[in-house]
Amino acid sequence: MRTRRHTSGGVGRTFEWTRGSPWRRFVRDLGLVALTALVGYVITTVWMAPDSVASSDHSVPRVLELPVDKARAELTKLGFRIRMEAQRSSPDVARGAVLWQDPPPETILPPGATVQLTVSDGPAPVIVPDVVGLSLPYAERILGAAGIKVGNVDTVRAAPEPGVVMTVRPPPGNGQPRGSSVDLLVSGGEGGGS
Question: What is the pTM of this model?
Answer without folding.
Answer: 0.49
